Amino acid sequence: MRLGRSRRREDGGVSLDAVLDAAVAVLSREPGAPLERIAARAGTDPRQVRALYPSRQALVDATVMRGARRIAHAAVIEDGGPAEQIGLLVARIWEDQAPVAPFTAMWMRSHLRAEVEGALEPVRALLADAIGRGAGPGGLRADLPASSVAWLVEHAVLTCLTGVADGAVAADTGRRLAITHALAAAGLSWDHAGDVATAVEHRVAGA
After folding, report:
1. pTM score of the predicted model
2. pLDDT score, position 13
3. Do residues 86 and 130 touch, judged by C-beta distance below 8 A?
4. What is a single molecular function from GO for this protein (predicted)?
5. pLDDT tens for each residue of 115-136
6. How far apart are CA 93 and CA 108, in angstroms?
7. Given a cut of 90, is residue 15 above it in pLDDT?
8. Comparing C-alpha atoms, which of 93, 100, 86 is closest to residue 23?
9. Roughly what angle, to the nearest 10 degrees, separates helices 146-166 and 82-97?
10. How many Å apart are CA 91 and CA 58, to the nearest integer?
11. Domains of the chain
């Protein structure tokens, strides 16, 4: 749900992406902002925005679903052991979502939550694959199906993002908390999760 560069069509009209980018930028700061403010951010007239989206809610819904699809398409499993792979995936998602945490919190509490979770299924599948490979004594939990553990991991990250949006979690420590919380949900002890998080942070810093 990160922002891209606004683009205008050759005919002078505003592009869909420009409007959606503006919606993320505005709603991340002020979830209740009116459509007129979003139009101003996009550099266009509210009537042009309404020609693309019949209502403010339709615009918000389109913005949310575009963001969910982007996360799903960008998610990959990197090299390393299963726990480190999970930590890296969480770190990449955090880098993408933390700047727009209020927007993420907004859709988590909206009627779109089930639809967004469906769009994020590819991410959950990657997590489940890593969990399945790492399950066993001394590793990730094996008392539940890998798909269920993946759901727990996903929601651990979303909980931390909501915490940043609500001010309960400090933004500068949120990523590490998200990684350790996700790995704890996957079955690691808190100290093992911390060691993996440190390794992940070193990799991300050197990327």
Report:
1. 0.86
2. 64
3. yes
4. transcription cis-regulatory region binding
5. 988 999 999 999 999 999 999 9
6. 15
7. no
8. 100
9. 30
10. 30
11. 1-74 (1.10.357.10), 76-206 (no CATH)
Residue 57 to residue 10: CA distance in whole angstroms:
27
Asked whether the beta carbons of 185 and 152 are under 8 A apart, the reply is yes
Given a cut of 60, is residue 11 above it in pLDDT?
A: no
pLDDT digit string (tens) for 172-192? Answer: 899 999 999 999 999 999 999
Rg (CA), the chain: 18
Q: Would you state the structure tokens that stand for residue 100, as one six-digit string?
A: 């727009």
Q: Using CA atoms, how far apart are residues 203 and 89, in angstroms rounded to an integer?
A: 12
Orientation angle between helical segments 190-206 and 82-97, nearest 10 degrees:
60
The answer to whether the beta carbons of residues 138 and 192 sit under 8 Å apart is: no
3-class DSSP string for the chain: CCCCCCCECCCCCECHHHHHHHHHHHHHHCCCCCHHHHHHHHCCCHHHHHHHCCCHHHHHHHHHHHHHHHHHHHCCCCCCCHHHHHHHHHHHHHHHHHHHHHHHHHHHCCCCHHHHHHHCHHHHHHHHHHHHHHECCCCECCCCCHHHHHHHHHHHHHHHHHHHHHCCCCHHHHHHHHHHHHHHHCCCCHHHHHHHHHHHHHHHHHC
Q: State the Cα–Cα distance between residues 110 and 165, nearest whole angstrom.
A: 15
